[in-house]
């Protein structure tokens, strides 16, 4: 069949069928990542027998999976049974500057996919899938499974790395003495801000087992004199500082839990006279508009029990916690920097 014959228009029903079958693509992408095929291919073309030998896989099975992915422009079949990276698969190599491998690996991970195996119980009662399938909160589940915890932390660092340029371009952090990054993970965002603003100091705050992973990065960037770490629970208290930033934190939680976090920030700010709270979040657009925030909103529903919000919903939430939303700075990506100040 010619290429022209395959480039047909699909009916809405056929498109729906393709969407429903996309879980096959997700599983296939996870498999090739675990086999390290994007790195093995690099900038070369490799025939399937050589690939199978290097990955210790069945050549026929591997070829059929790569052929499917190539049809979706994930890899390219350059000759019969010969494959190369495409622009898409280049993005899941480990040695590319803007690699999104960690995030894609987490999204396609078998445990993550298991949480989506049956959405109906969550739709019926609103409780996260992790509570239905594993009888516990997703963060407790991660803590009990070090491999899953690492996958999640690596994905969050990957997400931070890819969002940082947009945040730094969109918002002027000048004039902040000490910036507290609440639940800042391995410190990718905070250390990047400190690198751009050499007069600023930072406090990286997260759970003890998470923040311990930031030590090497802080030392390698020679920021030990300017970036300190603190461990604790943001539902209890947060450290003192001149300004606070929370990236992709509030969306993890429902309104009640989010208010606890925000009120703890407000209490800490009241002690020092801090005047700035920054949230880095996606904002839900209007009806029938495709946007990453709508996928992430369901992810929050299924995993931690949080939600994405509209600008108005963030405004109301912040007001209940004692803040006034003063500005929203869109980034070049899907995120926004939501600025607020304590209400006098």
Explain what the structure shows:
The protein folds into two domains: 3-99, Winged helix-like DNA-binding domain superfamily/Winged helix DNA-binding domain (Arc Repressor Mutant, subunit A, Orthogonal Bundle); 158-342, Vaccinia Virus protein VP39 (Rossmann fold), CATH 3.40.50.150. 49% of the residues lie in helices and 16% in strands. It is built from 19 helices and ten strands. The chain has helices at 3-6, 12-20, 22-34, 37-41, 48-55, 59-71, 87-90, 101-107, 110-115, 120-125, 129-133, 138-144, 146-170, 188-196, 208-211, 215-220, 255-272, 292-302, 311-320; strands at residues 45-47, 76-79, 82-84, 178-182, 201-206, 227-231, 243-247, 276-282, 323-330, 335-342. Strand 7 (243-247), helix 17 (255-272) and strand 8 form a beta-alpha-beta unit. Helix 12 crosses helix 13. The longest helix has 25 residues, at 146-170. Residues 1-5 have low confidence and may be disordered.
Shape estimate: globular
Q: Note the total helix count.
A: 19
Q: Give the biggest sheet.
A: 7 strands, mixed
Q: What percent of residues adopt helix (DSSP H or I)?
A: 40-55%
* Topology as a string of helices (H) and strands (E): HHHHEHHEEHHHHHHHEHEHHEEHEHHEE
Top CATH class of the largest domain: Alpha Beta
Number of strands: 10
Share in β-strands = 15-25%
């Amino acid at each position: 069949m010619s290429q022209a014959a395959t480039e047909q228009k699909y009916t809405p029903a056929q498109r729906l069928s393709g969407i429903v079958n996309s879980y096959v693509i997700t599983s296939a992408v996870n498999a090739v990542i675990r086999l390290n095929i994007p790195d093995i291919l690099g900038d070369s073309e490799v025939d399937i027998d050589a690939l199978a030998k290097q990955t210790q896989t069945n050549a026929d099975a591997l070829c059929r999976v790569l052929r499917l992915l190539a049809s979706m422009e994930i890899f390219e079949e350059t000759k019969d049974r010969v494959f190369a990276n495409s622009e898409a698969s280049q993005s899941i190599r480990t040695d590319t500057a803007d690699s999104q491998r960690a995030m894609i690996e987490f999204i396609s991970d078998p445990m993550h996919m298991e949480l989506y195996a049956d959405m109906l119980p969550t739709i019926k009662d609103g409780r996260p899938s992790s509570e239905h399938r594993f009888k516990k909160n997703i963060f407790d589940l991660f803590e009990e499974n070090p491999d899953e915890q690492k996958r999640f932390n690596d994905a969050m660092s990957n997400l931070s790395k890819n969002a940082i340029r947009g945040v730094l371009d969109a918002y002027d952090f000048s004039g902040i003495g000490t910036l507290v990054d609440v639940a800042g993970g391995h410190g990718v965002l905070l250390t990047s801000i400190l690198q751009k603003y050499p007069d600023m100091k930072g406090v990286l705050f997260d759970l003890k087992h998470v923040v311990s992973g930031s030590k090497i990065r802080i030392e390698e960037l020679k920021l030990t004199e300017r970036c300190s770490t603190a461990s604790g629970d943001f539902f209890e208290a947060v450290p003192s500082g001149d300004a606070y930033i929370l990236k992709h934190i509030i969306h993890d939680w429902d309104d009640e839990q989010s208010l606890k976090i925000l009120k703890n920030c407000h209490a800490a700010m009241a002690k020092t006279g801090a005047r700035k709270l920054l949230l880095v979040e996606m904002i839900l657009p209007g009806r029938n508009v495709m946007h990453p925030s709508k996928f992430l909103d369901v992810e929050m529903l299924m995993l931690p029990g949080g939600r994405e919000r509209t600008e108005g919903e963030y405004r109301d939430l912040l007001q209940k916690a004692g803040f006034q939303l003063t500005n929203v700075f869109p980034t070049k990506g899907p995120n926004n920097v939501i600025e607020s100040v304590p209400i006098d």
